[in-house]
Amino acid sequence: MRGAGEGLSIGERVAFYRRRRGLSQAVLAGLMGKSEDWVSKIERGERQVNRIDVLVELARQLRVTLNDLLGEPVLFEDEDDNDDVPAVRDALMSPQGLSRTLFGDGLPPEYVDTEPVARMTEEAWNQYQQGKVGQVIALLSGLLKSAQQLERGASGRSSHARRAFAVSARVHHLTATTLSKVGEADLSWIAAERAMQAADQSEDALALASAARAGTHALLAMGRFDEALSLGETAARWMAPELHGGNPGALSLYGMLYLRTAVAAARRQDRRTTTELLGQADVAAERLGRDGNYWQTGFGPSNVELHRLSAALDLGDVAYVIERGQAVRPTHLPVERQVTHAIDMARALSMFARDDEALDMLLDAEQKSPQLVRHSSTVREVVRTLYRHAPVSNGKSSPLFGLVQRCRAMR
């Protein structure tokens, strides 16, 4: 049910799904290896679940997806109340995209110029990095149809055919990354799978590495951390030979794969592996020598530091995140990275009851990208916590209540 229940807290969803399964609090507590009091406090909102691996296990025991438990997806609307996600879903699930044999009509493939689609795709990537998610979603259905047309027109192993599949891979990667940001994890995985299939056909090592990065994003969004770790590490090892020439794009993709796998390791509470993977990304960043944006990665020493802080937060090192994170000023990085860091910092500050600072962090991030903030399940949980802590006098005209309304964080 799209948009249903976004005002519920995670604890309220735990209670709903527990009752639907016919479990008592005591039985769920036993399945989780916790006390009945722990479950009771979670459901009443007196205790927060701050570790993503615990949320994943709760979802598993309740037999729902992680996104169900987080209340995703909600109805995506931009400032003009447009919601084009259904159009993106229709384009992804078009039967014509399933089989070139069945839907080719027996006609020779038609030549389609790749470059206009490539230019539009890169412009959409730029908009994504600027935090303009609504504009990207409005473009995706058309880009997906163009990508399918490019694939149908690709013939043999000509340079044109390989280029067509490479462009299609970029379109589907953008689709996967954008959908994961707005809570559409299942659709994101479909798009990531299509990206990797197209990249295979392109015979372009960097296109495949980029598509694998999309796969890790989708798997992380679904709470499938072991699979994300396996995919990212496999792709990084596979593309290692591409680093010998010092290609900055190859270094950036290689480093980003290790950053995404480090996040996966942190979310499954594997501190040693997290440290090792961050170390691999560090080496790539040192070789690159600067903060770049090759293949829209935003990769470099600063992005490694942001991922180190994000991983530390997932590992529970909240004091470290607050101390180090407030000294980081990633204003030269893409807006999407700036906002993601701000959300991490707000989450950490709220855990230490530094509510005013957390609110200021979110309001500043909202100024940069309203859509990334308002459609984040993490933001909704932080905002609910801040609102519960707020004094009664902090009424409906307060900045906090305004953010609550804009994020649809409360019923």
Structure, described:
This protein is an all-alpha fold and 411 residues long. Among the domains are: 1-71, 434 Repressor (Amino-terminal Domain) (Orthogonal Bundle), CATH 1.10.260; 325-411. The protein has 22 helices and no strands. It has helices at residues 10-21, 25-32, 36-44, 52-62, 66-70, 85-92, 100-103, 114-129, 133-153, 159-181, 185-202, 205-221, 225-239, 248-267, 271-288, 301-314, 318-325, 335-351, 355-368, 370-374, 377-389, 399-407. Helix 8 packs parallel to helix 10 (159-181) and helix 11 (185-202) packs antiparallel against helix 12. The model has no long low-confidence stretch (mean pLDDT 89). One of its GO terms (cellular component) is cytosol. InterPro entries: Cro/C1-type_HTH, Lambda_DNA-bd_dom_sf, TransReg_Diox_bact_type. Keywords: DNA-binding. One of its GO terms (molecular function) is DNA binding.
In short:
Helix content is about 70%, strand content about 0%. It is mostly helical and about 400 residues long.
State the main characteristics:
mainly alpha; TransReg_Diox_bact_type; 411 residues; 434 Repressor (Amino-terminal Domain); DNA-binding transcription factor activity
Q: Which band does the percent of strand residues land in?
A: under 5%
**H and E string:** HHHHHHHHHHHHHHHHHHHHHH
Q: What gyration radius follows from the Cα positions, in whole Å?
A: 22 Å
Largest sheet: none
General form: globular
Number of strands: 0
Q: Class by helix and strand content?
A: mainly alpha
Contiguous helical run count:
22
